[in-house]
Design a protein that fits this description.
single chain, mainly beta, 4-stranded mixed beta sheet, 1 helix, 4 strands
């Protein structure tokens, strides 16, 4: 099935060389989780990242579905 991966700001550099923009479409097997999708690109799967599925925060073990958009970006620390 096809899903979209959108890596924003500093995470955009984790996309494959030659990617135009910040979004790619990939094919994954049924049952693939958000963490499996993002670990392939080296996205940190901890509190340093903001990760959403179709605009909603969900558990990283959530399986993706056809046409989903997985988005990740670095959390901004302030003080």
């Amino acid at each position: 099935m096809k899903v979209h991966v959108k890596l924003i700001a500093t995470y955009q550099r984790l996309l494959p060389v030659g990617t135009k923009g910040n979004t790619i479409e990939i094919t994954v097997p049924n049952g693939t989780s958000i963490s499996q999708v993002l670990s392939h690109y080296g996205v940190p799967l901890d509190e340093s990242s903001v990760i959403v599925l179709n605009g909603l925060t969900v558990d990283l073990s959530t399986p993706v579905s056809e046409g989903d958009m997985v988005t990740a970006f670095s959390a901004i620390a302030g003080g």
